[in-house]
Amino acid sequence: MTAIAVLGVGRVGAAVARTALQGGYDVRVAGSGAVEDIALLAEIVIPGARAMSAEAAVEDADMVILAVPLSKYRTVDPGPLAGKVVVDAMNYWAPADGPIAEFEDSRLTSSEIVTRHLHGARLVKTLNHIGYHDLEDHRTPPGTPGRRALGVASDDEPAARAVMDLIDRFGYDPVYSGPLSTGAAFQPGTEIFNGAFAREAFERELGHANGTRLSA
Ligand SMILES: NC(=O)c1ccc[n+]([C@@H]2O[C@H](COP(=O)([O-])OP(=O)(O)OC[C@H]3O[C@@H](n4cnc5c(N)ncnc54)[C@H](OP(=O)(O)O)[C@@H]3O)[C@@H](O)[C@H]2O)c1
C-alpha cells in the first residue's frame, strides 16, 4: 500500500488525509508539534490515519503532502524530504498569511520559492486550487462526464506522473501543465483558481494563461 504523509492537520490537511484514506492509501499525519497535540484530533477527524512526528511520518512515506500555511514553510525541515515526491498544496494568501516580501516581490511562483528551501525534494504543485470543503464533495470516478480537472506542475516529470496517479485516485482528472513555473496559471487570482473546470476547459484556460504569460 502506498504510504502518504500529510504535514499540517488543518482544514486542507484533514480533507486531503481523508481523501487519501478513501483512495486506499496508508495515511500518516503530522502537525508542527508533539504527536500528542494532534493524536486525539486525528482519531476523531481522520479515523484511520496515524498521527506521528513529522520526521517519522515522512521517513518511509512514498509521498508527502505539504498543507501548512505558506508563512510557515521555512519551519518544514528539508532534510527528511530529500529525494521524496512532495506535493505543495500551499498558496500565498496575504489576507491570511499577512504580507510576505519574498512572495509579494517575486516573479516566481510560490512553489518555485518553496523548492529552493526544500532542496533535494521532488516538488509538485497541485491541490492548491481546490477548496478544502470541495475536495471530498467534487470527487468522481474516472470517466465521469464533466469530471473536475486539477493541474499538476513540476520540474520533475516522473514525480509529476506519480502525483497525477494520486490525483486520479483522489477523484480528479490530472492535467500536467509543465514545469513548476507553469503553476502560475493556477495560483490565487487566476481564472483556474477561482473556478472549477473539466479537462477540456481546464486545458483551454491553461493555454490562455500560458499564452498571456509568454507574450507579457
Ligand atoms: N483553505 C483552503 O481551502 C485551501 C485550499 C487549497 C490550499 N490551501 C493552502 O493550504 C495551506 C493550509 O491551509 P489550511 O487552510 O489547511 O490552514 P490551517 O487550517 O491553518 O492548517 C494548517 C496546519 O498546519 C500546521 N503546521 C504549521 N506548521 C507546520 C509544520 N512545520 N509541520 C506540520 N504542520 C504544521 C498547523 O498546525 P499548528 O497549529 O501546529 O501550527 C495547522 O494545523 C495554506 O498554504 C493554504 O493557502 C488552502
From TrEMBL:
Residues 135-154 are annotated as: Disordered. It comes from the Bacteria. One of its GO terms (molecular function) is ferric-chelate reductase (NADPH) activity. GO terms for cellular component: plasma membrane. This is NADP oxidoreductase. GO terms for biological process: copper ion import. Keywords: Oxidoreductase. PANTHER family: DUDULIN-RELATED (PTHR14239), F420-DEPENDENT NADP REDUCTASE (PTHR14239:SF0). SUPFAM superfamilies: NAD(P)-binding Rossmann-fold domains (SSF51735). The keyword Oxidoreductase applies. Residues 4-92 form the Pyrroline-5-carboxylate reductase catalytic N-terminal domain. The keyword Oxidoreductase applies.
